[in-house]
Amino acid sequence: MKMTSTALLLGIESSKGTFESTAYDSTKFHLSVDLGQKSNGKTVGMVTRPFKFGDSTEIEKWTHLDKYLREGKAIPVECEFDVVAAADGTKLTLLGIKPTAAAAKTAA
Questions:
Q1: Where are the beta strands (DSSP E) in the chain?
Q2: Do 51 and 45 meet the contact criterion of CB atoms below 8 Å apart?
Q3: CB neighbours of 45 closer than 8 A, spacing ≥ 6?
Q4: pLDDT in tens, the chain (108 residues)
Q5: pTM, rounded to two decimals
Q6: β-strand 46-52 against 2-19: which pairing, if any?
Q7: Alpha carbon of 21 to those of 24, 53, 56: distances in Å?
Q8: Which of 53, 44, 55 is CA-nearest to residue 77?
């Protein structure tokens, strides 16, 4: 099932290379997520979670936000996810991401 959501982007990293004869090429977006309920304890606050999206060239679309992110400012983004139910919870796959209209104006 596809769903859209607004999240806070806190960092972006790209990777490209070869490890043990296996090539890799991806970009990870670090988005804040609510810790939510745990069956065996309490949670407080938010954490970042990396979501892979695109290849290593994807980061080039976001480099103009480098100074803003380095100042510790989170950027509101619109995300499209694929949500799949699994035995141990739900699996989210990032299908698309872009700054919100307000964030694009503020960070420019």
A1: 2-19, 22-34, 46-52, 75-86, 89-99
A2: no
A3: 35
A4: 999 999 999 999 999 999 999 999 999 999 997 655 555 667 777 778 999 999 999 999 999 999 889 998 999 999 999 989 878 777 889 999 999 988 776 665
A5: 0.82
A6: unpaired
A7: 10, 22, 18
A8: 53
